[in-house]
């Protein structure tokens, strides 16, 4: 082997080592960026850390009202208090029903003014969706809301920070009934919810799902027979000293986690 061949081989090895080192450095840098981004990402409450068999059932209202009365009657039948997330576009069409929900002792919560994609609008627009919705709820029902659910389940740090700055709690769900889908039967809804039950769960339903009232008429007694207690979302969540991990679990305040 001559000198030129040896030199060429060493050069190629050096270049390969350099490329490999560069690749590793880039991969590590990208991993660090992803880790930092995940650490900085704000997350709403999807469910609550608790050993108690407590859960909450909630109803989003953005369209229609034909089935709401039956839902209210079913909740009353089982002595369950729920949380209703109301949009302005629904409140404007059904103010009397909104007042009836409040009069029945249910929790009223915010769901935006116009049901937009909150992550796709400006900070000023997001603030108006929050503040305007809160004011309409107060004007129509007299209820002072403290919870907010994002339309379409879409959120970003901007919107979450706006809520927390105002002392509000962003809340999602851990069990989605999919009751808004016309293809889902009452049995489908019942199966999805009952198979997913867990302590600290927040169940998502809608006030005008075709089979929602029929489904909860079986879901509620089943859960109660399994030892679960239904409470409004505002009573399920922790109000102070908590953390929310990247899975959306609201973690107990440290004092409650302590064995002391």
Structural commentary:
- With about 260 residues, the chain is α/β, with parallel strands linked by helices.
- Helices cover about 45% and strands about 15% of the residues.
- The protein has ten helices and eleven strands.
- The protein has helices at about 5-40, 70-75, 90, 95-105, 125-140, 155-165, 185-195, 210-225, 235, 255; strands at about 45-50, 55-60, 85, 105-110, 145-150, 170, 175, 200-205, 230, 245, 250.
- The longest helix has about 40 residues, at about 5-40.
- The model is unreliable at about 1-40 (pLDDT under 50).
Write the layout of secondary structure elements.
Layout: H1 3-40, E1 47-48, E2 54-61, H2 68-77, E3 83-86, H3 88-91, H4 95-103, E4 107-110, H5 123-141, E5 147-148, H6 157-165, E6 169-170, E7 175-176, H7 186-196, E8 202-206, H8 212-225, E9 229-230, H9 233-236, E10 243-244, E11 249-251, H10 254-257
Parallel strand pairs: 1-11, 2-3, 2-8, 2-9, 3-4, 5-6, 7-8
Antiparallel strand pairs: 10-11
